[in-house]
Amino acid sequence: MPIESIPALHTGLSLAAVLFCLGLAGLLVRRNIIFMLMCVEICTNAAALAFVVAGAHWSDADGQVMFVFVITLAAAEVAIALALVLQFYRRRYTVDIDQLNALRG
C-alpha cells in the first residue's frame, strides 16, 4: 500500500482526540492520585501526537520541536507531582484524592 493513500492528518488527529478523551475521562472518574497523574500524561501525549501529525502534514519541523517541549514539560510535571504524592502518602498513608480535603485547616 503506497504511503500517499493513508490519510495521515485525519487518522493521526483522530487518534490524538481519542487518546485525549480517554485521558480526560480517566481524570474525571478515578480518585487515585497516581492514576490521575497517568491520565494527565495520556492527555499531554495526545497533544504532543497532534503537534507531530500536524507538523508532518505541513512538512514543518515545528511539530517535532513542540513535541520536545511537551515531553520536557511532562518530565518536570511527573517529578514535582510524584514528590507531592510521596509527601501526601507519608502523612496520610493513602493516595485517595478525597483525603486532600483533610489537609485544609
Task: List the keywords.
105 residues; mainly alpha; 3 helices
Distance between the termini: 63 Å
Shape: elongated
Percent of residues in beta strands? under 5%
Order of helices and strands: HHH
How would you classify the quaternary structure?
single chain
Number of strands: 0
- Give the low-pLDDT segments: none
Going by helix content, strand content and strand pairing, the class is mainly alpha
Mean pLDDT: 85
User: What's the main sheet like?
Assistant: none
Radius of gyration: 18 Å
What is the helix tally?
3
* Helicity, as a percent range: over 70%
Would you kindly provide a written description of the structure presented here, covering whatever features stand out?
This protein is mainly alpha-helical and 105 residues long. It has helices at 8-29, 33-57, 62-92. The mean pLDDT is 85. α1 (8-29) packs antiparallel against α2 (33-57) and α2 (33-57) packs antiparallel against α3. The longest helix has 31 residues, at 62-92. The radius of gyration is 18 Å and the shape is elongated.
